[in-house]
Amino acid sequence: MRALRKLTTQKIVTEDTTLFMGLVGDLFLALDVPRTRELEFENQIRQAMVDLKLQHKNNFILKVVKQSQMSVDGSKLMILDGDIDPIMWIELLNTAVIDENKVLTLEINERIALTQTMRLPFDIPNLRSITPGTVFQAGVLYLSHTDHGWNPYVTSWIGTSDNATEKAALLVLLNKYVPICLEVLKTKFKIVTPIPEIMHKQMLCTLLDCLSPPINCPPETARDVYGTYFVFACLWAFGSAIFPDQLIDWRVEFSKWWLSGFKTITISSSGSVLNYFIDPEPKQFIP
Q1: What is d(CA 235, CA 181) in angstroms, rounded to the nearest whole number?
Q2: Are 75 and 115 in contact (CB under 8 A)?
Q3: What is the pLDDT of residues 218-251, one digit of tens each?
Q4: 105 vs 76, 109, 199, 260, CA distance in Å?
Q5: How far apart are CA 232 and CA 216, in angstroms?
Q6: Span 25-48, mean pLDDT?
Q7: Following DSSP, what letter does each residue of 5-47 receive, concatenated?
Q8: What is the pLDDT of residues 135-158, one digit of tens each?
Q9: 178 Cβ neighbours under 8 A, 6+ residues apart
Q10: In the chain, where do the E strands start and end?
């Protein structure tokens, strides 16, 4: 039961985990086998995350443990990232490297022999172009955005500030703007390319790092000033990828939606909200 659970849960999406565990429960009636834990190793991971000012969530620590179980000491890693080419090269790699002679032949006819200590991690967004046979033979570690969400990243980012007023203001602003912006991007507007939720948050935090240094927001800064810079960063973090198609200018629709929904920070209704910037002296939006 433990082996079945260990090999399967790290390969399936979060939504299927409950269904799978129900099937395991039906297969092993009245049997509850806890997973083998390395408490000292888990504590070391937790302490390392604390030292790095990261959020030590239990489900993320479990992912790190599973990753360590898929490798061996002294491994030499060849990390392959990006999308999987659907023209069968991954299956050729499967046949040549995983099944038979452990030799990787490149397009330039260079041959790389893989030793017992070498690993080929694939850092990829999905498994759409990979057959079930390859998935079965590979060690898959699935990181779902629903497992962790964006809160740990933002919480760690806020923790880098030493200004209590700034922290409190940012928490209020994040809870007010971010969830609804994420929701409307999924349902109301079109963007030029799919963007993961975490990337919107990273863009937001990076813009705020650039816009609100001590020269713009000293320790005694009022909360409405933080709000002004936050709104500007939010507009571009969530609105920059919106584009006009042949029928509708979705940037105009985004501007109308923003002006009708958020009125705390004043922006003129003449023109798009994306055409405004912040005057550093009065700290107000101007076209």
Answers
A1: 9
A2: no
A3: 777 778 888 888 999 999 999 888 888 888 888 8
A4: 18, 6, 35, 59
A5: 14
A6: 82
A7: HHHHHTTS-HHHHHHHHHHHHHHSTT---PPP--HHHHHHHHH
A8: 766 667 676 666 667 788 888 888
A9: 150, 154, 201, 204, 234
A10: 76-77, 80-81, 103-105, 111-113, 118-119, 122-123, 277-279, 284-286
